[in-house]
Design brief:
Distance between the termini: 24 Å
Number of domains: 2
Oligomer: single chain
Number of strands: 4
Shape: elongated
Strand order of the largest sheet: 3-2-1-4
Strand content: 15-25%
Number of helices: 7
Order of helices and strands: EEEHHEHHHHH
């Protein structure tokens, strides 16, 4: 049995398991040359298949490590944010929301943010929101994409 394992959180990666033994594994960041990538690890999956001379049709099962994921991880801010961005996020977003109890949207703080890399998910269907801003209809909409 051939199983493709997928981790799509920050430090996205993929592994190949054949007959219960890990044969190969690779992190997306090694191939994309950017640390802490969050997304479907498309480069890692393609690499594992090519290196092990497999077609996607040869895979018997796919196992994904996450069921729900923080929206901002899907937007890849872990890899793209500078130290100044992290400080800005703490001071202008979380401090105001948590300490001052102000309603503020994440995209108001970073209105022009775009991921540096083409990611494995279609971001037009994923809201650019922190988990504090997400409402039930956002989760329901994402769930319907499964």
């Amino acid at each position: 049995m051939k199983i493709l394992g997928i981790n799509d959180t920050h430090d996205a990666s993929a592994c190949l398991i054949i007959d219960g033994k890990i044969i190969d594994a690779v992190q997306e960041e090694r191939l994309a040359r950017s640390k802490c990538l969050s997304s479907l690890p498309t480069l890692a999956i393609k690499y594992l298949l090519r290196k092990n001379k497999l077609e996607s049709s040869d895979i018997d099962q796919v196992s994904v490590a996450t069921k729900k994921m923080h929206h901002l991880n899907l937007w890849n801010i872990n890899a793209d944010f500078s130290i100044n961005d992290w400080v800005t996020m703490q001071e202008r977003y979380y401090f105001l929301r948590i300490i001052k109890k102000k309603i503020i949207k994440f995209k108001e703080i970073f209105p022009n943010y775009k991921p540096k890399f083409k990611l494995g998910y279609n971001l037009s269907k994923i809201p650019f929101k922190s988990s504090d801003e997400v409402v039930k209809k956002d989760y329901d909409r994402l769930k319907s994409l499964d």
